[in-house]
Specification:
Length: 240
Amino acid sequence: MSDNHSADGSGKPLFYDPTEHRIRSFVTRAGRLSAAQARAIEVLGPQFCIPYSKAPLDLTQAFARNAPTVLEIGFGMGDSTAKIAATMPDKNFLGVEVHTPGIGGLLKLIGEQQLDNVRLIQHDAVEVLNHMIAPASLAGVHVFFPDPWHKARHNKRRLIQPPLVDLLASRIAPGGYLHCTTDWQEYAEQMLAVLKAEPALQNTAADYAPRPDYRPVTKFENRGLRLGHGVWDLVFLKTA
């Protein structure tokens, strides 16, 4: 299992960069862009992709309606995002991903399933949160299977750490939620400790939550479950 492991198969690394003294939500890596993904970017990108800007994003304008908005950090190839958006048409879904094949993959699904409640930003999620997302404007945040950075010396690169959780909590409206998922037990334990330490968040369970119905089980997760591997969901609410 490589350091680029993720249970949804995206291999998306999300980590803290000590050299820059800030959290980053990705590691640059090469990826093969298929012809179908390239066509989706060309045809659907202008309609569904939002350019990064150091200015607050008007969510009502971006989605052409006023509806609760859920942010997803690192959606990989977008399979889960598309499934969730299709089953929750009353909500907006804003996906942030840096890797071009993932952008093309989700745009392809948007076209095939005729989804109109998804928008994408291809940029570092931390900069998006800092500059484009207004405080208390999100109904929820999804962080599914971020890279666990298995080796102890790499643990500091993990995404779910106090600075980011504090930033996420500030962007979630009271009553909104933060949902994190991992298939690496040691990372689940770290996530639980970090989330419990954030005063603006309250756990919905004693420790780990049952998988919410809206989160689909990926094929990689199913394979792991058949092999006896665990998956841990953490769902925390933003307090008033």
